[in-house]
Amino acid sequence: MLDFIIGASYKRKEIHDAWGGQRQGGISTPKDHPVIFLFSADRGNEFGYEDGWHEDGFLHYSGEGQKGDMQEVRGNAAIINHAKNGKQLLAFQAIEDGSRKFIGPMDYVDHYYHEAKDINGSTRKAITFRLTQLKNSDTDLITAGTTPEKPTETLDVLRIKALDAANMKPDKKSSAREYYERSASVAKYVLARAAGKCELCGKDASFMRRDNTPYLEPHHILRLADEGPDHPDSIAALCPNCHREVHYGVNGEMVNKRLINMKQRTNPHSSATSRGHYNRDSYGIRENS
Questions:
Q1: Residue 282 banded pLDDT, cuts 50, 70, 90
Q2: Domain layout of the chain by residue ranges
Q3: b/e for 185-194, b at 16 or more Cβ within 10 A?
Q4: How many Å apart are CA 107 and CA 266, to the nearest integer?
Q5: For residue range 54-89, what is the model confidence (pLDDT) as tens digits?
Q6: Considering the entire predicted model, what is its pTM?
Q7: CATH architecture, domain defined by 4-134
Q8: Where are the alpha helices (DSSP H) in the chain?
Q9: How many CB atoms lie within 10 A of CB 279?
């Protein structure tokens, strides 16, 4: 299987030869792998296509559809629903020699509509997605460069804040910083809910943080990386050993399914479903060193 190294370039043909998926268009959805490829292209802004990083800290990526209003269907719907469907967004940027540079795994934040021209020159409603780059799931969570602070609110208050953060619809002016603050609110509740015990093996945290709180790691049951806001019922607080087994163990997918079943028994209305978990390693994603 073709490995992807962040910052390295690949021919689109070799990507599809290895992974499948539609060979034309910006959004490719291989049927046999839980990934969605996003290809930016040298497409002019005369058709409303302006892929790139913006000052809000997000990657703005144009939806698909050449004629008429863009709709939340097919590839566009796949992006919006990627997390709950257990699909990872993998983004590539077009470069001058015609190959594609791998940007890395992404997470859907939100999308907005704006007026643009279609391929016939008619004014239409276009979709632009805001995406954030996911960090390495090996890192000590929760948001980039931060650690959870000891909660001072009650568990009920923390859950309300977590649900508000998970259900919040960002507006067009919200920033990547606000996105990660939402993530921190959800993770803070999940860690407090666990009360110092791994929610998979049931054992006490193996050590304490410097702030004297038990060390556990939030794990997104359905996502392919453990970052970004999510419904708190779809996140579990795990000890490092269980967390690494889920991501890298030979029985990791089976262990994650057991965790899903446990969550469903404790909360039958949980947003966690019986979908399998797919390890980050299965994509051969590597950081440039």
A1: very low
A2: 4-134, 155-278
A3: bbbbbbbbbb
A4: 28
A5: 888 889 999 999 889 999 999 999 999 887 787 889
A6: 0.62
A7: Roll (2.30)
A8: 12-19, 74-80, 155-167, 176-194, 240-248, 252-266
A9: 15
